[in-house]
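Onboarding guide, step 5: your first structure request.
Type a short instruction followed by the sequence, for example:

Predict the 3D structure of this protein.
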Amino acid sequence: MKPHFSIALSPGHTPTAPGATRGNVTEYGLSSAIIGDMIFRLSKLGHTAHLIGSNTNSAQVRRINKIAPDFGLELHFNASVREDWNGSMVLHAGSQRGVDLANAIQKSQIKALGTKNKGIHKAHYRLDRRKPIITIVRETACPFVVIEPLYLSNAQDFERIDVPGISIAIVSGCLNYWEGLG
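The system replies with structure tokens like these:
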């Protein structure tokens, strides 16, 4: 068994800029609830989970790099004007460890949530390859991914919301990644 790991966890968005919404559910509120559950589960397993507050991207990166975790993630939920868009994806910066982390989490969340596999992708802003990789993924010194487990704008994905279930799926992916490292 590998030693315990240290992970940086960041909920997407802020209380004043909550991101996607559906009814009373906000992306920030849902991400925060899941991150809180993840911290509890990881701590029970002996791992160290660092909550990275929602702040400017550069402040988040400085904090993450100062903590020097083994890896990290930011949790978001997709939304689209096209209500038929659905599924799970994970974004990474392109390093091998980032790709491995993204794959482990994507595999786990697809299996647990039963969502459409939208794959893993380089974290270009709005997935536009002409635009730079998003700051928090590009500038952290550790492997770092952005997770999009489902679309809040899609009725079927919305019905899949289960805070402990999503938390367990992501924690399982993190554990699988850690165990798979040489």
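Each response can be followed by summary notes, for example: The chain is about 40% helix and 20% strand.
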